[in-house]
Amino acid sequence: MATVLLARGHTREARHLLDDACGQVTGPADVLLDRAEAELARTFGDLFGAEQALRRGLMAAERGGYVYGTDELWAALAEVCLDTGQASQARECLRWLERVARQTGGDRARLLHLRAAVRLPGQDAATVRSLLREAVDLARSRSQPFETAVTLLSVAPSSDDPPALFYEAYRLFGEVGASLWRFRTRVAIRESGNAVPGRKEAVAENERLLAVLVAEGLSNRQISSVLGLSGDAVANRLTRLFAHAGVRSRAEIVSGVRTGLLEQ
């Protein structure tokens, strides 16, 4: 549920959900809270905090002697290590993830491994193509739209045809209402030198997401971290939102979101 809330920009609700669950979940399922904590930290650009949460979960799993959920932790830690330039650490995480995949026999663990493995530096083109093809085929075969979209977005930069995977991910994120991930995909599409489908719709979606983040109580600096924008860019977008929505304060934006007027 925390992942769903974060995907839609509801960071405060996700925080409250995790706080409520703290201490109520014990045993193997407890590591999934650390995974969610890491995702929340990563959403705000706090990669150090994400890494700490993931390592905490892995240590707890080791002490408890259980494997359940550690595939998610190892995979997420590999992604964080890649984001922070720790390639050797990422490889070590993937070695552990392979062991978990063999123990559990689950295709979810294999998919998580493939998603991170595609991003490893120093691999030959044939290896990358093979990993990418398997990741995309496996994701599609599992028929889980959000999971498939995340996979496509993750591997698209390494593919021979990034736009096709970006556009498919963009459509799937739209179908499940993952507005924050859809925003990230728009950024990726633009950075790849391609046009985002439906400019008018994209602008409206950007404004709705911004309104949600404001209603969540985020400061301009926090919004900047979540969206990966500069402080000036956030300020400019807020100015346009105020003008388009006909409001004069953040309080009015909060009211509009709560009544549904700014999320239509």
UniProtKB/TrEMBL annotation:
SMART domains: HTH_LUXR. Gene3D superfamilies: Tetratricopeptide repeat domain, Winged helix-like DNA-binding domain superfamily/Winged helix DNA-binding domain. Residues 196-261 form the HTH luxR-type domain. InterPro entries: Sig_transdc_resp-reg_C-effctor, TPR-like_helical_dom_sf, Tscrpt_reg_LuxR_C, WH-like_DNA-bd_sf. This is HTH luxR-type domain-containing protein.
